[in-house]
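sanity check this record:
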Amino acid sequence: MFRERTAMLFNRQYIRKDSPEAFNRFSIVFLFLLSLLLMLKQLASSSYFTVNIEAAFVYPSWAWQFKEALREGIIYPRWTPLNFWGYGSPTFLLYPPLAYYLVALFNALPIL
């Protein structure tokens, strides 16, 4: 049964244009081409990844400052005091804090 079914899926002469198999094949090809289009810049770049390296340091710093503010009793931290050479910034007024709450939750869990 499986062999006949896969033969029908990949053999053009058995697939009608209005059949679900044709729709599935079209969906897979469409999603592949769409993802290829979205990744074109990444695939055409000369470097391995085209990311901002500073983000690897900024977001963990924000998560740590958010966790420390929660530890101090501030339920909704709005200010990151260590940003901009100690002057601080209103980071959590501009960025949604759900990810930082999740980081703080996982940091509060005991290590098993």
Summary: DSSP finds six helices and no strands in the chain. The chain has two domains: 2-44, 55-108. The radius of gyration is 25 Å. The mean pLDDT is 79.
